[in-house]
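Sequence design from tokenized structure. All designs in this work follow the same two-part layout: the structure record, then the generated sequence. An example of the structure record is given first.
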């Protein structure tokens, strides 16, 4: 069973949401639901979602084909999310700032932690007693 996510308008409520398509090995839709963000849980601080089950899978297939979205893993189109389609959706400005931050050195505490202890300073490393 594979899962594909596609941004679509919900067939139940009409809001934009992330449609989760559960596909079998033959890339046929076996189950589908639309996920909508609800709120953040106060205790766990995790996002909570509501789900709407899509009952008419034939209507969903028609909607996907009208938008040019293919379900097989070899062809990824705009509008598809997930690991296979993510490369096309990267914001180039964010990518550039990420590369710039990678060039900077480690923070000051990281530099201190990786230095060996100073030789000859009492208490910084074990020393042999003087003869």
């Amino acid at each position: 069973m594979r899962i594909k996510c596609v941004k679509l308008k919900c067939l139940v409520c009409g809001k934009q949401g992330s449609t989760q398509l559960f596909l079998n090995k033959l890339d046929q839709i076996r189950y589908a639901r639309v996920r909508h963000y609800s709120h953040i849980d106060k205790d766990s601080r995790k996002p909570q979602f509501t789900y709407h089950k899509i009952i008419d899978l034939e209507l969903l297939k028609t909607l996907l084909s009208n938008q040019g979205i293919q379900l097989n893993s070899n062809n990824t189109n705009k509008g598809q999310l997930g690991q296979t389609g993510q490369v096309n959706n990267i914001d180039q400005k964010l990518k550039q700032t990420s590369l710039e931050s990678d060039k900077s050195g480690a923070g000051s505490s990281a530099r201190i932690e990786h230095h060996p202890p100073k030789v000859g300073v009492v208490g910084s490393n074990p020393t042999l007693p003087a003869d």
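The beta strands are 2-9, 16-23, 29-40, 47-53. We note this feature because it recurs in several other targets discussed in the main text.
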